[in-house]
Design goal:
16% helix, 3-stranded antiparallel sheet, Immunoglobulin-like, 2 domains, 205 residues, globular, 5-stranded antiparallel sheet, alpha+beta, disordered N terminus
């Protein structure tokens, strides 16, 4: 074979080879799949675990709930409870909702009707008195967390239970002002107190 024939033969092989590649690509394309070179990095280990939001109210001392009768203007009723943040997450706020199933003048009159006050102590309250008339003394720092009409929704002022694992030592006192007149006689109110913890604002972590 002379040099001219060798060159022609080499060109023919290249053309055939090129056609073969094009034909293979066309066949793959006809199947709806495209081939690409790919590479993957080493996995970056990232674990996200959601927090647990939980609060719990436990009783301290004399019985809660409590029932009383013959309440007159100037009377008050106080009980102690512990509000525990037993979750793993900090709270943004803690609120106290007080509701009543059957409203009466005792709960609809915001000025002369029943009033509610919530106090906190930096340590557990020291209880005295009797089961019918208990007293509570704070040997640490005492703070007023909320006060107002008995049926309302309070946001507690900077409670300790905003911090996960922390406890608020609370007393709630229900009183009837001396300004209540004869229209308040013979009335009743069944109050229900519910604490609600709300998560803190989300942030960049």
């Amino acid at each position: 074979m002379n040099a001219k024939n060798i060159a022609a033969s080499s060109t023919a092989r290249k053309v055939v080879g090129s056609l073969g590649v094009i034909g293979a690509a066309a066949a793959v394309a006809g199947m709806g799949t495209f081939g690409n070179f790919t590479d993957s990095s080493t996995p970056v280990a990232t674990t996200i675990q959601s927090g647990t939001l939980s609060i719990d109210v436990t009783q301290q001392g004399f019985t809660v709930p409590v029932t009383t009768s013959n309440f007159v203007p100037g009377d008050s009723l106080t009980r102690a409870v512990n509000l525990v943040n037993d979750g793993s997450s900090a709270l943004g706020s803690v609120s106290l909702a007080s509701t009543v199933a059957a409203p009466s003048v005792l709960t609809t009159d915001a000025i002369n009707g029943l009033q509610l006050a919530v106090k906190g102590c930096s340590v557990a309250w020291t209880q005295g008195g009797t089961a019918q008339a208990p007293t509570y003394t704070c040997s640490g720092t005492e703070r007023l967390l909320a006060s107002g009409p008995a049926v309302t929704n309070f946001v507690l002022s900077n409670p300790a239970s905003l911090v996960a694992g922390a406890t608020d030592y609370l007393t709630f006192a229900i009183s009837l002002p001396t300004s209540a007149d004869n229209t308040f006689q013979g009335k009743s109110a069944a109050l229900s107190l519910t604490f609600t913890g709300t998560q803190r604002t989300g942030s960049v972590r």
